[in-house]
Design goal:
Layout (H helix, E strand, L loop, with lengths): L1 E7 L8 E7 L6 E10 L2 H7 L16 E8 L11 E4 L2 E3 L5 H4 L11 E2 L18 E5 L4 E2 L6 H4 L5 H11 L7 E5 L3 H13 L2 E6 L5 H6 L4 E4 L4 H5 L4 E6 L7 H5 L2 E9 L11 H5 L4 E4 L5 H14 L5 E4 L4 H9 L6 E5 L5
Helix pairs in contact: 4-5, 4-10
The protein binds NADP nicotinamide-adenine-dinucleotide phosphate and zinc ion (2 copies).
């Protein structure tokens, strides 16, 4: 074991504080990563505040991680010292269930090992990316293409793949009308990726305050959901809706915007049930679905897709001592569009 600097939540109700955490020694199949940047995902906030259930404290969160490989185990073949790499929401899975064998580690039937707050192979609780170093088994480490600016690459590891995966699965592309609900970290990536896939993209945000930005980010249309006319004007019009909202919304109002055979995919994860009404689904034979991050193969595919299409998140780089303020701003939807921690400020 060795000790590294980190930021951690001491409990569900206290601010995060600078501390040290233990990392395991590099095993034969492990990679040691010198973390350079870590994104702040709304899931970090849900988790440390206990909104999804009790957590084990102190807890270091962060699952949008990029850095350089600084050591490899004796049996590592996929990565070399000096490589630009990333780690997303999971660091292992059972590797033997039906879903793992089909290449969907994110849907591991035994539950994949989350990057933070999960029980690791050695029985310890995994600690995430708000830290200077992390040790991860090589197959769960992604290659970050050279052409993606490093600090902007971090949010792709969660926000990027969580939106790429449903957009690819439900065939966003030419001739498809896609709506994105909520313009935060995930939402703005959904707009960029759906546009690059060739879909016609509409943003549904609470107010008109992000309209100019969204049109610059390649959205074709923008509507405020605080305006009731939005729901009558857009009734029965979308093939696919990606809901990224972190809070409870009237999901039936959004389902009614789907045209024949349309699908609404919720990736937003409020703690409360979403309350779908059967008759809203009967009309237009609509589908209501969920999607959880993406597999390792899909994450690499997304990174390569973003490199090919010149896509990178809009980021605000912050020092570690700004994390608690950044959380408050995320909660007020005052983020344009992802906070990224410069881990040099942790040293
Ligand atoms: P975020 O940056 O805070 O974005 C969420 C957006 O939702 C806000 O910017 C805001 O957009 C909108 N919003 C917030 N509160 C609202 C309310 N009360 N009513 C209506 N709209 C509201 O969060 P994020 O990091 O993108 O994460 C979004 C959600 O996805 C979180 O719940 C997170 O835990 C979840 N998530 C799920 C997965 C998965 O695998 N499924 C992966 C990552 C994250 P506007 O200001 O534009 O309205
Ligand atoms: Zn996340
Ligand atoms: Zn499995």
């Amino acid at each position: 074991m060795f000790t590294v600097n980190a930021y951690a939540a001491p409990s569900a109700t206290e601010p995060l504080v600078k501390t040290t955490i233990e990392r395991r020694d590099v095993g034969p199949k492990d990679v040691l990563i010198d973390i350079k940047y870590a994104g702040i995902c709304h899931s970090d906030i849900h988790t440390v505040r206990g909104e999804w259930g009790p957590a084990t404290y102190p807890l270091t969160v962060g699952h949008e991680i990029v850095g350089f490989v600084s050591e490899v185990g004796s049996e590592v073949t996929l990565h070399q010292v000096g490589d630009r790499v990333g780690v997303g929401c999971m660091v292992n899975s059972c590797r033997e269930c039906e879903n793992c064998l089909a290449g969907f580690e994110n849907y591991c039937l035994k539950g994949n090992t989350g990057t933070y707050g999960a029980v690791d192979v050695d029985g310890s609780i995994t600690q995430g990316g708000y830290s200077t170093h992390i040790v991860v088994v090589e197959d769960f480490v992604l290659k970050v293409p050279e052409s993606i600016p490093f600090e902007a690459a971090a949010p792709l590891l969660c926000a990027g793949v969580t939106t790429y995966s449903p957009l690819a699965h439900w065939n966003a592309g030419p001739g498809k009308k896609v709506a994105v609900v909520g313009m935060g970290g995930l939402g703005h990536m959904a707009v960029k990726i759906a546009h690059a896939m060739g879909a016609e993209v509409t943003v549904l945000s609470q107010t008109l305050s992000k309209q100019e930005d969204c049109l610059r980010l390649c959205a074709d249309h923008y509507y405020a959901t605080s305006d009731e006319a939005t729901f009558t004007d857009l009734a029965n019009s979308f093939d696919l809706i990606i809901n990224t909202v972190s809070a409870l919304i009237d999901i039936n109002a959004y389902l009614s915007l789907l045209r024949l055979h349309g699908t609404l995919v919720s990736v937003g994860a409020p703690p409360e049930p979403l309350g779908v009404q059967a008759f809203t689904l009967f009309n237009n034979r609509r589908s209501f679905a969920g999607s959880s991050v993406g597999s390792i193969a899909e994450t690499q595919e997304m990174l390569d897709f973003c490199a090919e299409h010149g896509i990178a998140p809009e980021t605000e780089l912050v020092s570690a001592d700004y994390i608690n303020e950044a959380y408050e701003r995320v909660l007020k939807s005052d983020v344009r569009y992802r906070f990224v921690i410069d881990t040099a400020t942790l040293v």
